[in-house]
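Lab intake sheet, docking and co-folding queue.

SAMPLE TYPE: protein with bound small molecule
LIGAND NAME: 2-acetamido-2-deoxy-beta-D-glucopyranose
LIGAND FORMAT: SMILES
REQUESTED OUTPUT: full 3D complex as structure tokens
PRIORITY: normal
SUBMITTED BY: R.K., bench team

The fields below were copied directly from the construct record.
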Amino acid sequence: MKITATLISLAAAASLLIVEAQHPAGTAIPLSLNPNHKRNFRAAIAKLAHRYPQLDLESHHTFHPPGAPVDNGARDKGTGSGQVPLIDVGNDSEYYGTVQVGTPGQPFRLDFDTGSSDIWFPTSDCNTQACKAHHRFDAKKSSTYKKDGRPWKIGYGDGSNASGILASDIVNVGGIKVRQTIGLATNESAQFASSPEDGLFGLGFNTIESVKGVKTFLDNAIESKAIAQPLVSVFLPSVRRNGGKGGNYLFGAIDKTRFTGALQYIPVTRKGYWQINISNAKYNNKALTQASEGIIDTGTTLIIVGNAAAAAIHKNIKGAVDSSKDPNIGGWTVPCSLAKTSKDNVAFTMGGKDFQVPVADLAWAPLDKTGKDCYSGVQGGQDGLWILGDVFIKNNYCVFEQSASPRIGVAPLKY
Ligand SMILES: *[C@@H]1O[C@H](CO)[C@@H](O)[C@H](O)[C@H]1NC(C)=O
Ligand SMILES: *[C@@H]1O[C@H](CO)[C@@H](O)[C@H](O)[C@H]1NC(C)=O
Ligand SMILES: *[C@@H]1O[C@H](CO)[C@@H](O)[C@H](O)[C@H]1NC(C)=O
Ligand SMILES: *[C@@H]1O[C@H](CO)[C@@H](O)[C@H](O)[C@H]1NC(C)=O
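RESULT FIELD (auto-filled):
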């Protein structure tokens, strides 16, 4: 659903930060090491309520390291699966992959988001700063472009939004090509100006498409039999555990080398987000008797649970502090030293099985230069659906299966 806690390094994103600097605090994405920014989880979380409303075996031989161009040409005939390598941005704040749109393909860096369903990026007609900071789609240069013209707009949980018009063209994801309705943004909120991504790639169900009746990429890939299995498998890497390398989205196949044991399948309770029942939360196998429906959301950076569950988890962590009322922090903090010293685990029970997140990953990002206290990777404030974001997914391989009875297969990730 895109709730991004950002940490953009000056070195990596110098040019983007120039744009960002023209939009002072308040329009900035909550979490940032830029000292001029107000860090505030609470604002990001509060806004949530406003919206509503591979590797198959073959591709092991042709592994694309992150950053290398993907040779889509080799897969033009369709092998039934397509892999998109991921770039890990800002110490696991967000991840993007490159998608080709139009004929010949124009590349876009998109944030794959299981918590929303639209695909969009800027159009060359858009001359706002946010648009100019990104790749813009030039319809005149695509022989397969088709006009649609319906107006389109979307808002996300972190308060960001974009609007424009709908169009249709060929979208090529790791060699899987479908004709797809896309949103061409003519306006986007300032949050996107500083984003390393050009736009989003929604992997949710079509029931939450911004424009009713629009089919998702997964819908189209399944209907056109472009993918062998009706699913997308997600491997999010972790800077702490594997240097943030090798991550990918694999459409139409499951990479059995990426997890330990068997996938546990969890039924989807509602088609919109990828919604599931979470029957408990645990700390070192001790039940915290906390339960909720939740979503597994690649577009949210952290794990966001109810206040009681966040308190129950942090109660077990020496040095954890609830600073949610401090406007400069707005959430739980934990000692940064946990990243190196903790052997503890938090777990979420789903489908009768516990899925772990090391407490080391709760030391998510330093509050300041001293590096003493860190924002926690688990935050409260979400008394509706809990959100198992990237902090969960980078520890658990997830297979989003859009079959007649949709389900999510989960197993501990193997680095
Ligand atoms: C990522 O984390 C490492 C280790 O804590 C730190 O040195 C580095 O500056 C961080 N990078 C970013 C982009 O925040
Ligand atoms: C873009 O949206 C903002 C409000 O979010 C509005 O003030 C501005 O006029 C819009 N720009 C264009 C070009 O539509
Ligand atoms: C879009 O986001 C901007 C910045 O957060 C906000 O000022 C504006 O009101 C939003 N527009 C819509 C239509 O939600
Ligand atoms: C999810 O939990 C609710 C409430 O406990 C229950 O009624 C429902 O049957 C559960 N659904 C699935 C698919 O387990």
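REVIEWER NOTE: Helices lie at 14-21, 41-46, 129-132, 217-223, 239-242, 307-314, 338-341, 390-393.
SIGN-OFF: pending second check by T.M.
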